Amino acid sequence: MSTIEQRFLNLLDSQLDISDASALDVDVKDLHINSMDTVSFLKAFNHEFGVDIAPADAAKMSKLRDFLDHV
To answer: What pTM was computed for the model?
Structure first.
């Protein structure tokens, strides 16, 4: 597991209470993440990895792995 992937998994755990790496390949809609948590996660993700994914672009990502692949 790469350092980036571990940082991402730590962020998922702290922001969304998702600690299982298998969730990376689950459709985001099936994870039942509410909109407030989604916004909070996106802000934390952008800050953690020094990227700037717009909410509209994030909405097009169907799996959590899509965020990881963006890095």
So the answer is: 0.89
